[in-house]
Amino acid sequence: MLFHYHFWTPHVEETEKFYVNQGFRISLRNGKYNGEFQTFNPPLAWDDFRDKEIKFRIIEARKGAVNITFGYGKKVIFDHIGFLVSPAEYQQICKNAEDLNWKIDGGERRTFIATPYGFRVELQTHGDAIDGTVEEAELKELLLTVKKPEMKRDLNDLFGRDVPLTAVVGDTVTVNEAVMTGMKVTSIHDPNGVMIAIKSESPSA
User: Fold this and answer.
1) Quick one: CATH architecture of 2-198?
2) Measuring CA to CA, which residue among 126, 102, 98 is closest to residue 113?
3) pLDDT digit string (tens) for 13-43?
4) Among 95, 98, 129, 167, which has the highest number of CB atoms less than 10 A from its own CB?
């Protein structure tokens, strides 16, 4: 299940405020202050630390089955997308990555696969990476800009199925559009240029 994307951005506070306004909760703030990494998690608010010149490594926003993270960068850079998979799916996807000669960086909590398309793929097997269910909020599809048109084919080969990603070819690798359910507005851009497009679920007959 597609559940996640991550950006580096100079608009850290603005990005947090944007997603909070869409009903997300902030579950984590970790940043470097006085040479050490520290947490500034809620109930702390920005008024408590705005003047401390913290360089945030990661801020995590959650809603339903969606998890979005971002950290400080001098310019907006798209880093990776994430899929929540079963242990069996994880093993097969890693084998497929080896067949594609893509580098696998395994970790205790998550694994990253480096693609040749300017972004990484995170594999997550822990259900606690999300707060709730797809009925509350779900990341249905991402529209990416990539530099080579083979991305969709290769990502389908990686996962062994059709993945909810589409792509256009351009000069800057990024997420153009994130299609979600459970948001408060019909369409709006986040501070990093991602269009949040709302997909309404049809009621069951």
Assistant:
1) Roll (3.10)
2) 102
3) 999 999 999 999 999 999 999 999 999 999 9
4) 167
